[in-house]
Design a protein that fits this description.
The chain folds into 2 domains: 50-269, no CATH class; 287-463, Rossmann fold, CATH 3.40.50. The chain has helices at 2-29, 33-38, 50-53, 57-65, 70-79, 141-144, 184-199, 215-220, 222-228, 271-281, 313-322, 333-337, 339-347, 381-394, 420-423, 425-429, 433-441, 450-463; strands at residues 81-84, 91-94, 98-101, 106-109, 122-125, 128-133, 150-154, 166-167, 172-176, 207-211, 242-245, 248-250, 298-302, 326-330, 351-355, 371-376, 398-403. It has a 7-stranded mixed sheet with strand order 5-6-7-4-3-11-8, with no helix packed on it. It has a 5-stranded mixed sheet with strand order 1-2-12-9-10. Strands 14-13-15-16-17 form a 5-stranded parallel sheet, sandwiched between helices. Helices cover 36% and strands 16% of the residues. The N and C termini lie far apart (90 Å). The chain is built from 18 helices and 17 strands. Helix 11 (313-322) crosses helix 18. The protein has 473 residues and is of the alpha/beta class.
Length: 473
């Protein structure tokens, strides 16, 4: 019994010694056992000193300034707050310490809003001017309906109205995953490309605050978020506290559809750089289509299931195979949503074929000088060119548009040849976007003329530096 007691006592002493070492380690190295166990990359620490919070302020100034036009820089320098109003977009910059109440999405800054920094988004609340911003890159009304507003309010330095629950040493970028999240085109067009534009200036030393947090969206683009920031995306609803930052950007830069203009702020960027970023992020090793080594070359056909379907898809595939392609038909949205796998498949393809629609957004994963073939439905010439045709060229790709004839549209079965729906689609869209959308986007399918379309695919073969037929069948 005595021997047993001595063993227990010895174990107790050892446990006590280990506990002492553990506490000493925590105090010495700010070790957070909860975040360690759950693998969080960033641990939110409460109540660091304000001196620590502001230490990066001078370093941040060039990054903040690069997000603004020359006209707005003076306002930023004098007040610490300014907004950049580009066509269709809005980005506001606070270069002084801010407090973000994630429960109300109110941002407190030590700046009085006056005639120099008031915007068309200024409103009065209890006699105080505040800025109300919906942080979505493309400031288009239909998209903004699902975006939670963020409010900028003045906090007098002498009487702060909020205390800091968490102090961060890095700035924040506040944006929303509202809008049309779930549609690959809108995800890249209004969130991923704008986020790349806005955040890469900070060299991953940035905290993303995602309003209208969508866990599926965050998981889908986890590689992108991890590449642009060292820290986990902050979900305001799951962490209702007051977070203090040395500065903040609200909203994302937006240049155009699937596009980056090197002459717009922040200057010097391009879609080629964005594609290179994606290649590194997703581990895509084929940089030029000539390096694919595929024999026969791979043609990826995006097969839509609901509208703008190819009614003679089997005939199309047979023709493409006769021209020597290995044809891969993708029918599942689930397959395309797994970007880790699907991006690698797309990068091995020499040609991407699809009717106008979100699936063509996957051209961002194609290797340089690959060919994009867009089948342009009746009435959709403008969006086909602007959303996918022109961007393909800016990405360093080859582009071919196949404009269908009225006889290739399923609409010819419902409307006479001289009906405005067939003969004058512009007059239909003139009645309102949704009138045109219902007809040309939602109710139209395609039966391509195999003979005509074969000429387009043969041209794709020529652009690849090959001759037809590629096969010996």
């Amino acid at each position: 019994m005595e021997g047993h007691r001595r063993v227990v006592c010895g174990a107790t002493q050892i446990i006590g010694l280990l506990a002492f070492i553990y506490l000493l380690y925590i105090q010495s190295f700010s070790f957070d056992p909860i975040n360690f166990c759950f693998g969080k990359r960033n641990s939110l620490k409460r109540n660091e000193t304000k001196e620590e919070v502001g230490v990066l302020e001078e370093y941040l100034q060039p990054s903040f300034k690069s997000l603004l036009s020359d006209d707005d820089l003076r306002t930023l320098e004098t007040s610490g707050f300014a907004c950049n109003f580009a066509v269709g977009s809005l980005v506001c910059v606070a270069s002084k310490p801010v407090k973000i109440d994630t429960e109300t999405m109110e941002i407190y800054i030590p700046t009085r809003f006056n005639s120099t920094n008031r915007t068309r988004f200024s409103v009065k609340k209890e006699g105080e001017v505040i800025q109300v911003i919906r942080p979505y890159a493309w400031q288009q009304f239909d998209l903004l309906k699902n975006v939670t507003p963020v409010k900028f309010l003045r906090e007098p330095p002498q009487s702060p109205v909020r205390h800091c629950d968490y102090d961060h040493k890095i700035p924040a970028i506040v944006f929303s995953s509202g809008g049309f999240t779930g549609n690959l085109f809108h995800e890249f067009n209004e969130i991923i490309i704008p986020l790349f534009l806005t955040s890469r200036l900070f060299e991953s030393k940035i905290q993303f605050v995602l309003v209208d947090y969508n866990p599926y969206f965050v998981e889908k683009f986890n590689r992108v978020f991890s590449s642009l920031s060292r820290f986990d995306v902050l979900n305001p609803i799951a962490n209702t506290s007051v977070h203090c930052f040395p500065g903040a950007v609200v909203g994302l830069e937006f240049h155009s559809f699937l596009a980056i203009n090197s002459s717009e702020t922040p200057k010097g960027n391009s879609m080629i750089e964005f594609k290179n970023f994606l290649s590194v992020t997703y581990g895509l090793t084929i940089t030029n289509v000539s390096d694919s080594g595929s024999k026969p070359p791979v043609l990826l056909l995006i097969s839509r299931r609901k509208t703008r379907r190819f009614l003679n898809e089997d005939e199309m595939v047979e023709m493409m195979e006769e021209l020597g392609f290995e044809v891969v038909v993708v029918k599942s949205d689930k397959t395309m949503s797994d970007l880790d796998r699907f991006s690698k498949l797309v990068s091995t393809c020499s040609v991407l074929v699809g009717a106008h629609g979100a699936g063509l957004t996957n051209q961002v994963f194609l290797a340089a000088e690959a060919v994009v073939v867009q089948v342009v439905p009746l009435g959709l010439e403008w969006p086909s060119a602007v959303y996918f045709g022109e961007p393909a060229v800016w990405m360093g790709l080859r582009y071919l548009g196949y404009k269908i004839e009225p006889e290739e549209s399923s609409l010819i079965e419902s409307y006479a040849r001289d009906d405005p729906v067939i003969s004058d689609p512009g007059s239909v869209f003139a009645k309102g976007y949704y009138v045109g959308k219902e007809v040309y986007l939602d109710k139209q399918n395609i039966r391509v003329d195999i003979g005509r379309f074969k000429s387009t695919i043969s041209e794709a073969v020529r652009l690849l530096g090959r001759t037809t037929p590629l096969s010996t069948r």
